[in-house]
Automatic annotation (TrEMBL):
One of its GO terms (molecular function) is endonuclease activity. Residues 2-78 form the GIY-YIG domain. SMART domains: GIYc. This is Putative endonuclease. It comes from Tenacibaculum adriaticum. Keywords: Endonuclease, Hydrolase, Nuclease.
Length: 98
């Protein structure tokens, strides 16, 4: 999926929401699941994809990421609940199993 995307990750208890941006969602989620980078998502065990949006351009994705990061947690939860009310891992069944 080589498309600019904004995504939300959470941990197993859904207590932390991480917002990221990428041009290759499958590759980036794999990197999160394997702990390739030791940043915020790694520190808080955020490796469950619960929400994502795709865009035509990286510029649009960056603007949306900034908008989402500026919002409060309730707005983020509302987006997740609308599209993924059970907070299931949307990457389940993708080409990797980590």
């Amino acid at each position: 999926m080589k498309t600019p995307s904004v995504y939300f990750l959470t941990n197993k208890n859904n207590t932390v929401i991480y917002i990221g941006i990428t041009s290759n969602l499958i590759k980036r989620i794999y990197e999160h699941k394997t702990g390739k980078y030791k940043g915020f998502a790694f520190k808080y065990n955020c490796n469950k994809l619960v929400y994502y949006e795709t865009f035509q351009s990286i510029t649009e994705a960056i603007a949306r990421e900034k908008q989402l990061k500026a919002g409060n947690r309730k707005r983020k939860e509302d987006l997740i609940n609308k599209e993924n009310p059970d907070w299931k891992d949307l990457s389940e069944g993708w080409l990797f199993n980590v």
